[in-house]
Design brief:
Strand content of chain B: 15-25%
Distance between the termini of chain B: 35 Å
Radius of gyration of chain B: 24 Å
Shape of chain A: globular
Mean pLDDT of chain B: 90
Strand content of chain A: 15-25%
Strand order of the largest sheet of chain A: 4-15-14-11-12-13
Low-confidence stretches of chain A: 129-142, 287-342
Largest interface: A-B, 32 and 27 residues
Oligomer: heterodimer
Distance between the termini of chain A: 41 Å
Largest sheet of chain B: 9 strands, mixed
Number of strands of chain B: 19
Chain lengths: ~350, ~375
Amino acid sequence: MDWLHHLGERVMVVYPQTLAVKIGTILNLVQRGERPAFWFRKWSSAYHEQKYLNEESIKLLNYLHCITKDNCYWLNSPSDLDSNNKLIQPLLAEEAGLNIAQQHIVSAKSELLKIINSDKKFITKSFGTAIYANGDDDTTLFAYTQMIDDALLAKMPETFYPSLVQQYIDKEFEIRTFYLDGECFSMAIFSQENDKTKVDFRHYDNAMPNRNEPICLPREVEERLRRFASAIGSNCGSFDLIQDKTGQIYFVEFNPLGQFGMVSHPCGYMLEKRIAQLLKSKNQCNTQYERIAKHDESLLPLCVMRLEQVSDGGYELCYHSDFYESDYAIVRSLHKPIDLLG
Amino acid sequence: MTHKDKLYLFPSCIPVKGYARSIIVDTQRRCYKFIPNVLYRILQEHNGDIIEHIMQLYGKENCEIIEEYIEFLIENNFVFISKNDITFNYNSIKNFDTPNHINNAQLDVGSIIPFNTIDLLSEHNCTVLQIFVKETADIALLLNLLGYVHKSRIASVYLNAKYSCEIEQNLQALLDQSNKLQQVLLTDAPRTETLRLGPCESCIVYLINSDISSKMQCGTVHPNNFATNRQMMAETLCHSSCWHKKISIDANGFVRPCRFAEQVLGSIGDTPLTALAEQIVALSSTTKDQVEVCRHCEFRRICPDCRVFTRNPQSPTAHLARCAYNPYIARWQGQSGYVPVDQCGMFTPKGFVPDAERIEQYALKFC
């Protein structure tokens, strides 16, 4: 946001609570033939107390996207809200030529035991990225990726809600690739020496932090990531990848509305600046602005939709660009659905 | 690990070569370690090479030393050993930019609050504001000032003032006015103490029981002042970390590159901030790689620069007058064997010229 300000761009920020007030202005602007650039960030579907209004607001956004998508640039869009299915993503990734881990949907302990009877190790994780659940005692439960071990098996009932079980890849390191409209910005996370972070690096270790280092992926892998992004219909997001001990790179998941600060800062990618420059270059709203501005000061040519308000504390911090993994430490490590048993 | 594996230096671990020795700066763990210059050379020339090849190159007689070096690198987690080909990106780590022309501003405040100046700095995305209150601080004025800054785009405030009972009693009130207040420095205090205020102890208060004006302290070189983060390393590569994106505005609105600098760049009311910023850019283009003596010092990328208190104010590349380190023999003033830099060579109009023979004699004395 500071970069947009520095580049001389006028910005309108829309949160769920201000959509009702600002949507009229935006529609007005678009109907006058203006072509602002949009940046869709996060949309909290739980802002309004009434479920009805939350659903209505998303419909309204979809409408805005639908009427503007052919003429205006959207960096991420409301359609990204639906693309986060960990069961469908690997199918598209495989089609794009990426390696994927073997995976199963399991709802009974007996089935699970059959699968893990082989020498391979397995992990469990959620289907989507709804990583928060409220625990019985008002704590926030956080869906970490978890290794299936004897302790977890012992706690498990005979049958449970269908869960995703995935082959554990013996990783050399993890990779986060921020994908920005065709460009890839990759960071390797070296966490293997550290038992705490072995399965999911978000189990942050403050004493011996992981190394986060900028790397370049092989060209053909970047090309496949591009193919995947276009297949899933997204132009921006964060890939989770793993390089195994043999040097093979595996696709894990793609988060279209992922945060980028944790890749940008340690690697010096200046993603905030790049995003601002991209939005500036795509914004085609300058011509009539002066004239309109005289009538209505609140009419601004560039609409940045960053729709989840950043608060000072709590889990919402993870959407803030200056977010560091240590903030995850405030929530307890538990998982849906198998390990909600813990 | 086997000797058939490849040795990769992590991009966040940056070696810096000095005359007598080198260091590796770990920008993620915020520390540095000394290494011999020969290890610096190995890391420069053989990064990504197979360990066995490096050993062959240095001959059987040096095998043990090389092995020891590699053990040291692994122990400190400076390197990654892998049999795979990994393309680390050593360039992006050098990027440095902030969304503004001026990032730090020093502001002297007299009896009136310079609202226009604060507006101007805020409009230009200035991040850090360091406020110097001249006379005994008027609390009402300070509260008003902090309240005004709180509503601006300025992100953090550092307050420097002379100690008074009233100001000490009102520290919490000041912080309540704005949590952007990150540091308060009170000089001439009856005692020396460090306090922490705020819900996350985010505000540090230093009471300093001394009459040393900060003019005497500015520009001193001490390991406590070294900054080992990525931003500092990237900034010092292309700029003087002292003057880059910084301005100082006195109570009359006159702008200098630093509050101790004599040269006046203009007046805040008359000269546009972008024009002032342009002058600052030109002034801050001198890097430590160009400054005499510093260019031979292994600390040059982590040591804050000072372009005011130098040996020769007429030269933009003059050595820091208050530096007590001799990089030619790797000794601090007070350490045994220390001799001042001027005994290791000659200051000439073209800069300092080290005398290799004399330096070797001093070095031999330690052995």
